Amino acid sequence: MNLHTLKPATGATRGNKRIGRGQGSGRGGTSTKGHKGAQSRAGYNYRAWFEGGQMPLYRRIPKFGFKNNNRVAYTPLNLDVVSEMLKGNPASEVDHAFLTMHGFISKGNERIKVLGRGDFANAVTIKLNKFSKKAKAAIEAAGGTAIEV
């Protein structure tokens, strides 16, 4: 036995399907492509998202909600968090630079709203974008000032 005499087992291989070679071949006429329609024509190429004429997914899924382009988003900051920051190193003023230094915000242009959760007993000046009524009252009760920037 030599390598050039090796053959696959009988029935293991099959010849190529020869389409479009006349009626007698059994694969003539429409050449296994059926009658009419885009897929029977030369040059047909379907798109990956085509679903065979079925209502496509992007049209089936519901579209709802509303995104307001003019919305002003604020990062909430509670007074108990400010108290924790001031425990480490007391400061006379809490502003964007102070919050950046403590890792609360990453860039100095974030808008911040101070909310009134927690106890606050530090007499400091807080210069931030917005204050809730409860937060402003708590800051002033502690002897500090709340300044909207």
What does this structure look like?
By secondary structure, this protein is α/β, with parallel strands linked by helices. The protein has a domain at 75-148: Ribosomal Protein L15, Chain: K, domain 2. Helices cover 19% and strands 13% of the residues. It is built from 4 helices and 6 strands. It has helices at residues 57-60, 79-88, 96-101, 133-141, and strands at 75-78, 93-94, 112-115, 125-128, 130-131, 145-148. The strands form 2 sheets. It has a 3-stranded parallel sheet with strand order 1-3-5. The longest helix is centred in the middle third of the chain and has 10 residues, at 79-88. It is elongated, with a radius of gyration of 37 Å. The mean pLDDT is 92.
Can you give keywords for this protein?
single chain, three-stranded parallel β-sheet, alpha/beta, 149 residues, 4 helices, 19% helix, elongated, Ribosomal Protein L15, Chain: K, domain 2
Topology at a glance:
Layout: H1 57-60, E1 75-78, H2 79-88, E2 93-94, H3 96-101, E3 112-115, E4 125-128, E5 130-131, H4 133-141, E6 145-148
Parallel strand pairs: 1-3, 2-4, 3-5, 4-6
Query: Helix content range of the residues, please?
Result: 10-25%
What would CATH call the architecture of the domain at 75-148?
Answer: Ribosomal Protein L15, Chain: K, domain 2
**How many angstroms does the end-to-end distance come to?**
93 Å
Number of strand elements: 6
CATH topology category name of the domain at 75-148: Ribosomal Protein L15, Chain: K, domain 2
How many distinct helices?
4
Q: What characteristic shape results from the CA principal axes?
A: elongated
Q: Regarding quaternary structure, how should these chains be classified?
A: single chain
CATH class of the domain at 75-148: Alpha Beta
- How much beta, percentage-wise? 5-15%
CA-based gyration radius? 37 Å
